[in-house]
UniProtKB/TrEMBL annotation:
Name of the encoding gene: nqrB
Membrane-topology descriptor: Multi-pass membrane protein
Family to which this protein belongs: Belongs to the NqrB/RnfD family.
Protein name: Na(+)-translocating NADH-quinone reductase subunit B
Location, primary (coarse class): membrane
Species name: Geovibrio thiophilus
NCBIfam families registered for this protein in UniProt: nqrB, PRK05349.1
Length: 397
């Protein structure tokens, strides 16, 4: 390792200003900082508030996402194996791989993981490549360092997609989300919405057939299966128990079906101080409050009016959106009071979209985007209120 360190130090001047490889400094810096701790550190405690930098924050978020990634592998494969055993899974390269490895078997954990990986990994590798390309391009043009945030965005995005998503649509959407949702505003730290959510919104409005309906959640051409939330919105019996919904063994987007996996991620983010418990708690309070209000009003024609809070908490992408999307430190409210308002707004909007619009029972992701847009306004009014309160306090002295 010392030889590699010496090699990097020997050739560093080529990438600095005036060097023959100056334009490629972001690539050099990314490699150097990935392998070694940055040599440019502050001595003493003058400017250091904690030991976390952006790289470590992103690494922690990736660790928090691991249970959801494992569920993306297992549950996607489980649903695909169910479809295979029902005789509705069309022949393809994935089934050819599965037949070589021992066949698709829903009772085999290894078979489910492998089959799920064959759906998840192509989407993930594509989004990682496309995200890395745009990050590198803008870093080189701006002569900035390459931010590690694209690694998290490239992992979040496939987790909130259905397994049947065409790869080219995922590539187009992540490109638009990263460029229009982040890079045009200056890159990491300056985006006002979550890029992964914006990419999903692009897919939802541009290619609705690939994002909604009952033919996209199970990777089988001749098998239709609505998500439990979609079934309940139409008054049908989803056949899913609450505990299975909590654990995540049900059709849905690849990585957001398990509330248990999201709870693990929430614990990691809260303990490390990266995710705001205020946002998560107030989001739950907002959802439960409005759902209880709807339950009190009741309806004979709208089944969602009668769906209890405990079901809302475990169905759809609410848990994932609350833990990993609403707590994005860049696009969320930054003031303490603002966090409570922001989180409550997201939870209440999720309930409102789900209940009032039965045609679109999943509303968590749009609710977070709505919250992102209003976060700066919330912070502004909170800060103004603090200024007025302090003004009155000092005026009374």
């Amino acid at each position: 390792m010392k030889g590699l360190r010496n090699f990097l130090e020997k050739h560093e001047h080529h990438f600095k200003k005036g060097g023959k490889l100056e334009r490629w400094y972001p690539v050099f810096e990314m490699t150097d900082s990935f392998l070694y701790t940055s040599p440019d550190v502050t001595k003493g405690y003058t400017h250091i508030r904690d030991g976390l930098d952006l790289k470590r924050i992103m690494t922690t978020v990736v660790l928090a996402l691991i249970p959801c990634v494992l569920m993306a592998f297992y549950n996607t494969g489980l649903q695909a194996n169910y479809a295979f055993e029902a005789g509705t899974l069309a022949e393809g390269w994935r089934l050819a791989v599965m037949s070589i490895s021992g066949g698709a078997d829903s009772s085999s954990v290894g078979s489910c993981f492998l089959h799920g990986a064959l759906y998840f990994l192509p989407v993930y590798i594509l989004t990682l490549a496309v995200g890395g390309f745009w990050e590198l391009l803008f870093a080189v043009v701006r002569k900035h360092e390459i931010g590690e945030a694209f690694l998290v965005t490239s992992l979040l995005f496939p987790l909130i997609l259905p397994p049947t998503i065409p790869l080219w649509q995922a590539g187009v959407a992540i490109s638009i989300g990263l460029v229009m949702g982040k890079e045009v505003f200056g890159g990491t730290g300056r985006n006002f919405v979550n890029p992964a959510l914006m990419s999903r919104a692009v897919l939802f409005f541009s290619y609705p057939a690939a994002m909604t309906g009952d033919r996209i959640w199970i990777p089988a051409d001749t098998m239709t299966y609505a998500t439990p939330l979609g079934s309940m919105a139409h008054g049908s019996d989803s056949g899913i128990t609450w505990i299975n919904a909590f654990l995540g063994f049900m059709p849905g987007s690849m990585g957001e079906t398990s509330a248990l996996a999201c709870l693990f991620g929430a614990a990691v983010l809260i303990v490390t101080g990266i995710g705001s418990w205020r946002i998560m708690l107030s989001s739950v309070a907002g959802l439960v409050s409005l759902v209880l209000l709807f339950n009190g009003i009741g309806s004979e024609t709208n089944p969602m009016m009668n769906l209890s809070p405990e079901w809302h908490l475990v169905l759809g992408g609410y848990a994932f959106a609350t833990v990993f999307m609403s707590t994005d430190p860049v696009s969320a409210s930054m003031t303490r009071t603002g966090m409570y308002i922001y989180g409550f707004l997201i939870g209440a909007m999720t309930a409102l979209i789900r209940v009032v619009n039965p045609a679109f029972p999943e509303g968590a992701m749009l609710a977070v985007l709505f919250g992102n847009v209003f976060a700066p306004v919330i912070d502004q009014y909170v800060i103004k209120a603090n200024i007025r309160r302090r003004g009155r306090r000092y005026a009374g002295c």
